[in-house]
Fold this protein.
Amino acid sequence: MGRPTSSSLPESAPQESLTIRDNRTGKTYTVPIADNAISATAFKTMTAPRKPGEREENETEKGLRVQDKGFLNTAVIRSGITYIDGDAGVLRYRGYPIEQLALKSSHLETAYLLIYGSLPTNEQFKFFESEVMRHSVMHADAEGFFRSFRYDAHPMSMLTSAFAMLGSYYSEANPSLQGQRLYTQGNAASLATMDRQIYRLIGKATTLAAMAYRVRQGRNFVTPPTGLSYTGSFLYQMDHLSEENYTPNPVLEKALDVLFLIHADHELNASCTTVLQTGSSLVDPYSAIAAGCASLYGPLHGGANEAVIRMLISIGSPQNVPAFIEAVKRREKTLSGFGHRVYKTSDPRSFIVRKTADEVFKVTGKDELLETAMALHDAAMKDEYFIKRKLAPNVDFWSGLIYRAMGFPLDFFPVLFAVPRVVGWLAHWRQMMLQEGGVKIWRPRQVYVGAGKRDYVPVEEREKVEGAKQTPSKVEHGGITKRTMLATFKGKSKL
Ligand code: CMC
């Protein structure tokens, strides 16, 4: 915690500390540094009297606030799960380099590692795998839920809603019904309740995703098979019709497993942060995962793989790449699949995806957009605009090409990101529930720049405020056709 020391620099300040002089008051504060971090609440002690004429909403006398739009440099949790060195292009799960895991591990083994902290023995893995797989079966009523969506519903809308719907089946898993300490006690019963939800969510993630897929294809639903791997079962659940002994292609099953593994976690990205933010109110994990799913869906995050393919289709062919690059530089377009908040050299996952793409193309044939993608990649990597801003391909630049070659519809791509990410979200959620000192609700501060206190004005005395952002927009009304407009009728239309 920051504490004022003296008006001059303290010679006795410990080396692992920061000395801050507040020039408004002349006071000097010493703030301890631990693990190369300082506590933001230390700034709360740095108070100053309000200047004459200063807005009271600044709350200057209540201490300094730390402003960080978009969390550029704010650590919100202490974590032992995933480490990223963005400058060196390093990604490690629980200390293990992603390249080694992609080569030697499997998605479910890595899930065990991420959630429980160490690689499982054979026996431990078998237990975990069988729990996950046996929890993959959905209640038959869920069929009605999926059938209630519009024929063209985006599968991410279905998946997001499905996770929230799933929670409604398990009242015993809901802290609002069972008591708010359901997941935070750390005793055997509490851990067992938590782990049961983990098995269910990982097990049912593929089932819900496959149901979203089948409903769009107009297919009946299938019961998850036995004896197949996690990704083998997922492929079966999407693709099996009435053939006997249906077995997914092993190359595609393995490729999907590698893609799942490298998507399993990525520390505090937008969706994981959303899961933790939502979970910090101690809501049930199904609701928290649904919130994470919603966050992942955006085109700046997990929706980027879909956006990349739409971009490549719009570019059309390698000869149109230079014009596209120029449009990006004029800020008329975004080069989807490039750039990253953390990686400033390369995204290590993108190399694994490139290698996986080669394996997949051997059995599916090359995707026709590959040449355009290569031309775009090469042009961007040589261009000063991208070099200066340290923009390199991220995982999404290549993954969409694999999903397309595997025959998945474009709007299903974010689902293929969300399903494996359930693992990472749960690892972080479990860690937060069990963290030392209990769960603290996530409640950030704001810098209030709005109106100061003012009195309510009666309608007849108000001045009209106008402006694009200050008044409700006029909108077209769907469903009212020209024919309706030309018709005459008594009473009011319902629309
Ligand atoms: N195309 C063109 N310019 C870009 C791009 C891009 N893809 N990404 C960043 N820039 C520019 C940006 O305009 C800014 O330029 P300037 O400094 O002149 O204003 C500069 O590079 C820094 O970018 P930023 O927006 O401050 O970076 P950020 O850390 O806030 O955003 C990002 C990171 C991933 C949202 C962004 O790079 C982006 O929009 N990329 C495209 C979407 C995408 O591929 N998302 C997937 C991310 S990886 C998978 C995942 O984890 O979800």
The pocket of carboxymethyl coenzyme *A is lined by residues 266, 269, 300-302, 304, 328, 334-341, 389, 391, 394-396 (CB under 6 Å). The beta strands are 3-4, 17-22, 27-32, 82-85, 90-93, 96-97. The chain has 19 helices and six strands. Residues 17-58 form one domain.
